[in-house]
Amino acid sequence: MKPLILTMILATFATSSYAETRAFSHLPPDEERVFTESEVALPDVPNPQQGDWVDLYITPTFKGKPQILLSSISYAEDGSIRYILNNRSAAGYNNLTAEGLLCITGDKLLGSEGSKLKTFGYADLHNNRWILPRKGDWEIIGGKHNATNSVRRALYEAFCLDGRAKSDEELRARVQKTVGFTHPASTKHN
Predict the structure, then answer these.
(1) How far apart are CA 34 and CA 81, in angstroms?
(2) Signal sequence span per UniProt (predicted)?
């Protein structure tokens, strides 16, 4: 009886080990998982008073009034999501940035540091131009709630948590459903 039980236990471990190996066998080798950023030209600086800006709901206690330009949300060729964010202050001062978010979830998370964020430019609204950041690297935002960057965390949840969206339109719909609410076009913002 004891040899039979021992055989069954060993067979169970062997089966689970095989299943675990097989579950990850579809992953490409490490050298094939290297992210290569696509060169995407910055768009014209948008007018924060016009366009399809969507207000973002962050938390009941969040003081700012962030918005995202709905029409700017799109996939780049590298798989990252590009968008224009207006991280408005509580007083209504505009702070536009052109950003990218790289969703790292599921199997892709293995061997990586997590999802990444990059600012491609800061809008100079007075001169209607983009100012490139001094440090233009992808920063890790990971998968935990980040109180110091709650706006980007909300965007991460909208863009990344339900898997890869099939289209730019689906990304936009996720933002509206998850964190956004649209005001009538006649509404003026400071």
Answers:
(1) 17
(2) 1-19
